[in-house]
Design brief:
InterPro entries: DUF6089, OMP/PagP_B-barrel. The protein has about 290 residues and is mainly β. It is built from three helices and ten strands. It has one domain: Beta Barrel (Porin), CATH 2.40.160.20.
Length: about 290
Amino acid sequence: MFKKLVILAFLFFVKEQIIAQTYESYQHKGEIGVGIGLSNYFGDLNPNENFKKLKFAGNLYYQYYLNNYVGLKLSGVYTRLGNSDMGSKNAAYRARNLSFNSDIWELSVSGTFNFFKFLPGIPNHNFTPYISAGVGVFNYNPYTYLNVDGTSQKVFLRPLGTEGQKSTTPHDGKKYGSMAMAFPLSFGVKYAVTENWNIFAEVGYRFTTTDYLDDVSTTYAGSEAFQAATYNGTPKDLWYAQRLQDRSGVVVTDPIGQAGYSRGNSKAKDSYLIGLIGVSFNLNGYKCPPSGR
């Protein structure tokens, strides 16, 4: 009986030593992941920050771990953002009657931190909440739809200068390009289903450097800014700009788009939120023991 106990104790000791050495030598090198989810835009056409216009989002990323807690992530994201004054509970916004959509292509680099040691395939180390923060750039190009002779036409808004950007008359509108910076701040949880595969859920907020995700920021330039004599653009762009810079006349008797009247809020930048669920494949490795061991 005593001999059996000694053998069992010895086997248990060996097992613990093997596990300890595995913990010491094992390192989660990185992972490649893909996720899908929903996005929501916040800005001049969603001043109450509601979630009524959720859009599809997807991402692809590579993450390299410096150790079992800290990593660097390179991430690519696609989503579509959009909203409309139509259906707003606020009568003033309904009268404004603006709308937009924009396809977003984002590339970012983030630092990540796991709250728990994450070692896929090792018991009690296969789950962790995490946070990440980083910097990125994204491409955007807002557009809307205009009914022309009974046909809905897709019209890109930036080339039109709807806040007077192409006019020689005084205006508050600022010229903007197709690129801006984003600062992602994310929180998520990750679980290793096997040594090779994880599942994750993540919510990330994007602060941006633009107030023109929606083509709305400052004040109306007024009809004087959209005349052939004052507009520096093509006749086609002028024709569309005349109809899209102030859409209030479609829904109210007296259009509200007089020069200097508020069209948006330039004091706050636009932003967006992305929620994702997905899977990732682990790139695992083992530390080389020091020489002499």
